[in-house]
């Protein structure tokens, strides 16, 4: 009986993360349009299952293993203390928000990602190559269909379709304005393609020349897809990610976790500087964009205006936040509606925004408040320092570090630190929690 239980547990540990990644991927494609509620429910069940797996593994662990995990200290504050204080602040936010369901749900998911994702759930039994293969196959198929759809509807804009035809959905998109027909939006497709590009290097760390040749068709499809999708954020992030790989190869004494930490701190500081700049320009109580702000808004394709709106709308929620994505969006729309009416518009003509905050760091600050945000920063740094997969400057650790840096850069313009939808944060927690030592001296990149 015990042997059967161990076999089942090993099977779950090996495949639960793979299945979770695939289901999260579905959320980013047209499958969401047809089966969005089903996919959302499955994602919830999988995250709950991961939470239960953590509880079971922790309860059956030896006493010394429990104490070791509880007492672990990677930076100057014990990990468990950071988590306890963080969730105390989040509990205060729940109370302030009158136990709003969306806030409770958000905090529960945060608990799963920040606590349950650990050595108890992302164990040595998990094979990253299984995740990598599934991810690359899924994204490649989506890219092939997207490339075909883009070119087809560009050349056949008046395609005749039946009401039950999938083409009905596809033809609703204008390739001139939306190049990510198969994805929920072009940025999503570009970001996923960039992830797949980095992950592909996992398979050429050994027997490099042969695998290099085999990867060429995949790279051509992925790069061309990124060109079609025209997601500028992924262009910049992929360049920085590849530059980080070069830095780690050249500077052999620089550990991957140190470089990832430096990047995370830099991205956090950039967001804080933008937030400070917004508040500085609001000192005269004039929300009109200055010439510099207007230029920043153009370069960020309207994101700066969203950040400013959120800063003003939630100025009274600085310390404990709005609580959740749903409440943040509602309060921002209330602010926008008030401005619209003050400008002479009527309430019935107001069109609410559906745009999220387009910045992961700012999203955490707005949802959780300034205190919890600073704790979140320390929690992520703590996890980076603890990550076994980032301890050694071998090829696989370098690839995982580059993937994390890619996520961190993307989060400056996309909100991938929050919610249960984002595969980027899921990947990040898997890498940081993986209980696998990747010290492989025979498999290190060498300068030619």
Shape assignment: globular
* N-to-C series of helices and strands: HHHHHHHHHHHHHHHHHH
Distance N to C terminus: 54 Å
Going by helix content, strand content and strand pairing, the class is: mainly alpha
Largest sheet: none
Query: Mean pLDDT score, rounded?
Result: 88
Total strands: 0
What amount of the residues lies in strands?
Answer: under 5%
User: How many helices does DSSP assign?
Assistant: 18
Can you put this structure into words, describing what you see?
By secondary structure, the protein is an all-alpha fold. The C terminus is likely disordered.
Write a concise synopsis of the structure shown.
The protein has 448 residues and is mainly alpha-helical. Mean pLDDT is 88; it is low at 160-169 and 440-448.
Features:
448 residues, mainly alpha, 18 helices, 68% helix, disordered C terminus
Topology:
Blueprint: H1 2-26, H2 31-60, H3 63-71, H4 79-96, H5 101-116, H6 128-155, H7 166-171, H8 186-199, H9 208-229, H10 232-250, H11 256-281, H12 291-299, H13 303-313, H14 325-342, H15 360-368, H16 370-386, H17 395-410, H18 423-433
């Amino acid at each position: 009986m015990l042997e059967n239980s161990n076999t089942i547990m090993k099977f779950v540990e090996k495949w639960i993360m793979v299945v979770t990644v695939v289901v999260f991927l579905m959320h980013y494609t047209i499958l969401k349009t047809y089966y969005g509620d089903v996919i959302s429910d499955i994602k919830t069940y999988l995250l709950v299952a991961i939470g239960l797996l953590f509880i079971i593994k922790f309860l059956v662990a030896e006493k010394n293993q429990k104490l070791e995990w509880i007492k672990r200290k990677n930076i100057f504050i014990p990990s468990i203390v950071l988590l306890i204080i963080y969730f105390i602040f989040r509990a205060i936010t729940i109370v302030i928000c009158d136990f709003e369901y969306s806030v409770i749900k958000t905090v529960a998911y945060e608990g799963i990602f920040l606590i349950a994702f650990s050595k108890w759930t992302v164990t040595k039994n998990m094979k990253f190559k299984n995740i990598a293969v599934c991810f690359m196959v899924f994204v490649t198929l989506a890219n092939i269909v997207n490339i075909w759809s883009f070119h087809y509807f560009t050349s056949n804009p008046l395609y005749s379709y039946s009401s039950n035809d999938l083409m009905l959905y596809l033809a609703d998109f204008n390739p001139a304005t939306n190049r990510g027909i198969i994805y929920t939006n072009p940025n999503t497709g570009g970001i996923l393609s960039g992830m797949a590009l980095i992950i592909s290097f996992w398979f050429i760390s050994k027997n490099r020349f042969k695998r290099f040749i085999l990867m060429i068709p995949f790279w051509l499809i992925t790069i061309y897809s990124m060109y079609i999708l025209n997601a500028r954020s992924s262009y910049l992030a992929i360049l920085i990610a590849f530059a980080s790989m070069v830095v780690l190869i050249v500077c052999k004494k620089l550990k991957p976790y140190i470089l990832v930490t430096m990047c995370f701190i830099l991205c956090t500081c950039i967001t804080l500087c933008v937030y400070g700049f917004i508040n500085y320009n609001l000192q005269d109580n004039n929300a009109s964009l200055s010439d510099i702000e207007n230029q920043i808004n153009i370069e960020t394709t309207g994101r700066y205006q969203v950040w400013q709106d959120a800063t003003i709308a939630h100025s009274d929620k600085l310390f404990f936040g709005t609580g959740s994505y749903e409440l943040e969006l509602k309060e921002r729309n209330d602010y926008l509606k008030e401005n619209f009416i003050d400008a002479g518009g009527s309430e019935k003509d107001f069109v609410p925004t559906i745009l999220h905050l387009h910045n992961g760091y700012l999203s955490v600050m707005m949802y959780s408040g300034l205190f919890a945000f600073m704790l979140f920063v320390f929690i992520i740094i703590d996890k980076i320092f603890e990550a076994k997969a980032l301890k050694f400057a071998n090829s696989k650790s370098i690839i995982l570090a580059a993937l994390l840096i890619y996520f961190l850069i993307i989060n400056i313009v996309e909100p991938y630190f929050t919610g249960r939808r984002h595969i980027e944060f899921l990947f990040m927690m898997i890498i940081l929690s993986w209980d696998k030592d990747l010290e492989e001296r025979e498999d290190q990149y060498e300068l030619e």
